[in-house]
Structure formats: C-alpha cells, structure tokens
Amino acid sequence: MKKLPLLPHIYQRVGFLLFIPFLLLSISYAGWDYEIPWLSYSKPSQQLIDFNNHNFTDELALAGLIVSLLLISFSKEKIEDEAIQFFRLASLQWAVLVNYLILILCVMLVYGSGFLSVILYNMFTVLVIFIVRFRFVLYQHNKSNP
Amino acid sequence: MKNKLKIQRAIHDLTQDDLAKRISVSRQTINTVESGKYIPSTALALKMAKTFGISVEELFQLEEGD
After folding, report:
1. B40 to each of A31, A55, B29, how far by Cα in Å?
2. Interchain contact, A83 vs B27, CB within 8 Å
3. Buried b (16+ CB within 10 A) or exposed e, B20-46
4. What's the predicted TM-score (pTM) here?
5. CB distance B29–A86 less than 8 Å?
6. Other CB atoms within 10 A of residue A25 CB
7. More exposed terminus of chain A, fewer Cβ within 10 Å: N or C?
8. Is A26 exposed, middle or buried (0-12, 13-18, 19+ CB in 10 A)?
9. Over its length of 66 residues, how does chain B's per-residue pLDDT go in tens digits?
10. CA distance B32 to chain A (A)
C-alpha cells in the first residue's frame, strides 16, 4: 500500500500536550468568559456599536484545539505499517459516518439557538470520534495478539 | 483468502517476530494476516513470498466467495 503522508510519531505527544491547555482555555472561556488580557484588540471608534473591540481568546482556543486534535490524528504510530494504515482509514470512515448520523439526530432534535452549540461541537466531533475509534481499534489489535 | 504463512514459518523455523523484522512490519500484523483478519497488499505478499523463496500463489490462495 502506498504510504499515507503523516507527521512523525513525536507530534502525537505534542498534540496531546497542547490539547490539555487549549481544552482548559476553551472551557474557561465558554464557562466563565475568561479572556487573556493581552489578546485584546481595540481601535478607537466613533460608532455607537463598536466592532473594533475584540478579544482573541476564543479564536486562540478554537484554533489551538483544532491544531492539537489534528496533530494527534495525523501522526504516525510507533510502527506504522500497512495494517495500521488500513485501521486508520477504516476508523476515519467510521468516524465521518457516525459524526453525520449524530448531526442528523441533532438536526431533528435541537432547535433555535441550541443548534448553534451543536454546530460548535460538531467542529471537533469528527476528529474526536476518529481518535477514540482508532485508539480502540489499535487496543483491540494489540490485545488479540499478545 | 487462505494462506500458508504459519506452515512456511514452521518450515523455515521463523517466529512471527523474526518474519515481522525481516519485512519491516509489526508482529501483530503478521498475526492478523496469518489468522486471515487482514489481507496484505501485493507488495507485502511479495515480500513474504520472497522471504520463503516461493511464489505468492503458493503462499496465498483464493477461497470461494473472494
């Protein structure tokens, strides 16, 4: 099988290390409106509604979460042979399918502003489901071959 | 697909780990191929056959339904 382009194995650990602080930052922003002071941007404006004042904490948290999940998802395993690549692709297919089934369910069941949260979470769920599924498949692969 | 990997390993006195190292895959992969859970690529099948000095057809055979 032709090798998939993947990052070296070390980036998986980098991804996990970055994921924790960005997750905490996202939770503190979403839960307690925490903002990092030096990420504020303000431009003097004469208008009544001021679009020029903005804090970039949420942008940093979102981008950081996505980047760390991508690093975890697309780094090689210690031994990345073709069977592992097959499991990787199969898990990705499974994750995309399950992600959209959940989304359809949410479309049917969640209305109004609540749906915005669904869209927000849906930005990550495909990667999260993929990571969990792939880890589970690898665990089973290793368990069945002691 | 049937395979004679286990028999060939026994003939050549190779463990799963030995074979895995020779063809640069993990031992678990050899195991899943042996048990028929994973069908290897042409390249890997050729490498396996070459290790045993036989043809791919001798190592792997199609089954009904394949």
Report:
1. 49, 52, 9
2. no
3. beebebbbbbbbbbbeeebebeeebbe
4. 0.82
5. no
6. 19
7. C
8. buried
9. 888 888 989 999 999 999 999 998 888 889 889 888 888 999 999 999 999 999 999 899 988 887
10. 8
CB count in 10 Å sphere of residue A59: 11
Q: In angstroms, what separates the C-alpha of A76 from chain B's closest C-alpha? A: 14
DSSP string, B32-60: HHHTTSSPPPHHHHHHHHHHHTS-HHHHE
In sign, the C-alpha dihedral spanning A106, A111, A113, A114 is negative
Which residue reads 């859970």 in tokens? B37
ipTM for the complex shown? 0.77
DSSP state at residue A39: G
CATH of domain B2-61: 1.10.260.40
**Burial class of residue A105, CB neighbours in 10 A (0-12, 13-18, 19+):** exposed
Q: Give the domain ranges of chain B.
A: 2-61
Q: Which residue of B has its CA nearest to A87?
A: B38
B32 and A141 within 8 Å at the Cβ level: the answer is yes
